[in-house]
Every structure is written in C-alpha cells, then in structure tokens.
Amino acid sequence: MYQAYKRQFEDELKEIRESGMWKEVGVLEGKQGAEILIKNDKNDENDKSDKNKGTKLLNFCANNYLGLASSDELAQAAIEGVKKYGFGEASVRFIVGTSMIHKDLEKEISRFFGTEDAITYTSCFDANTGLFETILKEGDAIFSDELNHASIIDGVRLCKAERFRYKNSDMADLEAKLKEFRDRVGTGLDPSVNERGSKPSPTRESRLLIATDGVFSMDGITAKISQICDLAEKYGAMVMVDDSHGSGVLGEHGRGAVEGLMDRVDILTSTFGKALGGAGGGFTAGRKEIIQVLHQRSRTTLFSNSLPPMIASAALHVLQNFDSKFISLRKQLAENTSYFRSAMEKLGFALGGDGRHPITPVMLGEEKLATEMAAKLFTHGIYVRGFTYPVVPKGKARIRVQISAAHTKEQMDKAAEAFGKVGKEMGITEKRE
Ligand SMILES: *Cc1c(COP(=O)(O)O)cnc(C)c1O
Would the pTM count as exceeding 0.85? Predict the structure, then answer.
C-alpha cells in the first residue's frame, strides 16, 4: 500500500528542495561552543563529497547565550543528579514520577523569578502546548502576538477559546481586539460592561488572556510587556509571557524581559535549553492557583514523563548560582553584544534588533542574498544561518547572528572581518576601509 504514498512524500520533498526551503542540518562532531566542528555541511558549495569532515567554525547561531551548553560545571551538576536520582522516573509525574529534585527546582524557579509557584515540563514547547487548553474554554478569548513562537501558536490551536492575532507589538491593534471582545461578550469581571448590554458567556465568566513572546526571536526585539499589562488591567485580561530568549539574558539581574514586572505578569513560561543551560527542559511559573490547575489538568504533564533528573539538577544549579556566579557571564554577554554591533555598524551593515539582546539580525532584504552570504561566510569559517520567507516576511531576509558570552574579542573580530569581506564582495556594504 505504501507505494502510492511514497510517491506523494517524494514529491513533497522535491517541492521543498525546489522552493529553496530545504534545511541542511549541520552535524556537530564535538561540544556546542564558540568554536565547533561541523561534519559534512552542504553549505560548503565547493565540497561535493561526503568527506567534508570536521570543518572548524566559529559558531554565531546558537542560543548558547551564556556559554553554559558545554560547561563542565553543569555537566558535573547533571552527573550529581543522575547519581542521586537515577537516570529517570519511568513515569508521568502524578503517578510516581516526581522526585525531590523536581520540587526543589520548582521552588527555586519561583524564588528566582519572583512567582508564587512553578511547574516543570520536559520542554518549553510542552509547557506552552499544555497551557492554553487547560485554562481557556469556549467562550474565552486569547489575544496572541502575530510573531509569537510556534509552540504558542500550536498551544492556542488546541484550545477552543476565540482567537485574536494582533499585529506585532501593536498596542492599538491589541486594544481594538480586546475592546471588540469585551463589548460583544463582556469579561464577567466588569459589571458596568454587562449593564451596557453585552452578554456574559453562558457557561461562566469569560476569561481573557494576552500571550506574547518576551523577545521576538527573528528580530531580537523585546515585547512591550508593561503596556500589555496596562491594557490587560483595563480590559480584565490575564497576561502570559514566554521569555525563552530573555531568561538569563535581559534585565540587570538576568530575570529576563519580565524583570521588574512579575507582579503584573500572571503566567511566565521559559526554557532551560537556551541561556539557562542548553540541554532542554522548560517550565510554567506564576499565580499559584493556575499552577495547581496545570498540575491537575495539563495534558503535557499528565501524559508525558517528568523532566529527567539530570537536567533538573543542572537547572537547579544554574538558578542557585546565578546571582553569585553566572551573572558575570550576563555582563560579558552584554559587552560582547555591543562590541560586535558597533563593529558591524562601522562596516556599514544595517542591523535589526534593539541592541539590548544578543540576537543581532543583519538585514539583507532579498532572499537570495541571505542564503548566499551565509554560504560564503561558511567558507570563511563563520557559522551563521540565513533566514528567509516564510520564517521572516518577504523581502526582509536576514542573517541572524547570535552573540554568546563565550565569544572572545578575537572571534568576534574574525566574524566581523569575514562579514566585511563578503559584504563588500557582494556589494552589500559601502566600500570603506
Ligand atoms: C526556544 C523557544 C521555545 C522552545 O523551547 P524548548 O524548551 O526547546 O522546547 C519556546 N518558546 C520560545 C519563545 C522559544 O524561543
């Protein structure tokens, strides 16, 4: 029977290739770090053989913001976790899959971010897909930024609430949508609204939730969280922020885009797969009643194994030692980010981002430029990725450089130099010396 389907899949794969959207996967031969060995990457146009092994490259496209992904100290913390709690729980949490390490980590997440409670998941993707349908029903409403991460989009798809997609960080658009829903349905929280003739949801009071990424990952721009909270108060909505790219990176204390705002943000989701470690793991933190409901009803915790203890152990180590030790990496990261940005600006490149986040988009415009430039940089020993439509809007293709605390000045100089050379070659930057 499969023969008929085989043709279909082959056609689909062909289509992906021909549309230029095929993703060539670079295989690491060693640890993730500022310097990596990539095996047989087809980005190297000159090498058609399978023997293009172990190309040494400077890595500028990982989320390894604090450089902890290859840290021996974290590996050691993970080993301690394995020794103490074993390889895994072989269970979902509510049956027999919760260890002390999960409890300790959840308490520590709450302390670190200043929330009432927290629940861990095996990833932030799971945290997000397990969130919305658990707390929102038919008759409720979710207001989601158009640039939100795929895991928020998928999570929202699973829930029966009415969906509103507002323009990226456009507060007027968000307000218009909140107002439209409130005037039509009411929030159940504001009696004066109901007096004006709107009807509350028939089943129960309607819940409204605004969901946003803390940092929009293609642009390196922070969400207007404070303004979102103002609108939430005005219209009786809750606020959810996914701060996966912000946690450990933004804010004077590394609490992320939400730093100083956690008394107004009701739900925070984030990952241990980026700055706060690199291996994986995620969590939802916030109001204690919401976290309790997630423990009771969230499908990605009820029907999926608990976070492996080794990851929980390493994550706990990062949070416990963040203020005394890892905070210096955050400072280094901020310094590196401005160092690289100013080098690139001097070369005449147009950069996106707000300069605070280590995501540094080099704006190129045409789709072909981004792909071609990334391939050329590869031959200069610089590993970066071109991002093109549909990941970013048409005509806004870019190379997304991601700076890490692990990059040395020399490595950033080398990258900027390569960008300069290739940029000139391709006529992207003005010729200056
Ligand atoms: C990376 C990312 C995720 C996914 O995190 P995982 O823990 O790897 O599943 C979710 N949301 C946002 C905004 C992210 O940037």
Answer: yes
Looking at the CA of residue 272, tell me the nearest atom of ligand 1: 7
Q: Does one domain contain both 199 and 279? A: yes
User: Is the Cβ–Cβ distance between 297 and 285 less than 8 Å?
Assistant: no
In a domain, 344, yes or no: no
Of all protein residues, the one whose alpha carbon is nearest to atom 12 of ligand 1 is: 244
d(CA 209, CA 134): 12
Q: Which of 269, 298, 322 delimits the end of a domain? A: 322
**342 is annotated as an active-site residue:** no
CB 124 less than 6 A from any atom of ligand 1 = yes
> Is the CB–ligand 1 distance for residue 110 below 6 Å?
no
Token output for 406: 């692990």
**Is 347 inside a domain boundary?**
no
Active-site option among 102, 149, 177, 274? 274
- The residue contributing the CA closest to ligand 1 atom 2 is 244
Q: Which tens digit of pLDDT belongs to each residue from 352-363? A: 999 999 999 999
192 is catalytic: no
14 counts as catalytic: no
To test ligand 1's pocket by mutation, which of 119, 145, 149 has the most ligand atoms within 8 angstroms of CB?
A: 149
> Residue 367 is part of which domain span?
27-42+49-62+359-425
CB atoms within 10 A of CB 432: 9
**Alpha-carbon gap, residue 290 to 116, rounded angstroms:** 10
User: Are 104 and 190 part of one and the same domain?
Assistant: yes
Question: Which residue, judged by its Cα, is nearest atom 15 of ligand 1?
Answer: 244
- Domain for residue 389, yes or no? yes
**Pair 211, 125 in one domain:** yes
The reply to whether ligand 1 has any atom less than 6 angstroms from the CB of 278 is: no
The alpha carbons of the chain give a radius of gyration, in whole angstroms, of 23
Q: pLDDT 10s digit of each residue in the chain, 433 long?
A: 999 999 999 999 999 898 877 888 888 999 999 999 988 655 455 655 555 568 899 999 999 999 999 999 999 999 999 999 999 999 999 999 999 999 999 999 999 999 999 999 999 999 999 999 999 999 999 999 999 999 999 999 999 999 999 999 999 999 999 999 988 887 655 544 444 455 444 445 789 999 999 999 999 999 999 999 999 999 999 999 999 999 999 999 999 999 999 999 999 999 999 999 999 999 999 999 999 999 999 999 999 999 999 999 999 999 999 999 999 999 999 999 999 999 999 999 999 999 999 999 999 999 899 999 999 999 999 999 999 988 899 899 999 999 999 999 999 999 999 999 999 999 998 644 4
Q: Is 280 a domain residue?
A: yes
Number of domains in the chain: 2
Ligand 1 atom having least distance to the Cα of 271? 7
Long-range contacts of 92-98 (CB under 8 A, 24+ apart): 92/301, 92/302, 92/303, 92/304, 92/305, 92/306, 93/295, 93/301, 93/306, 94/295, 94/301, 94/302, 97/305, 97/306, 98/306
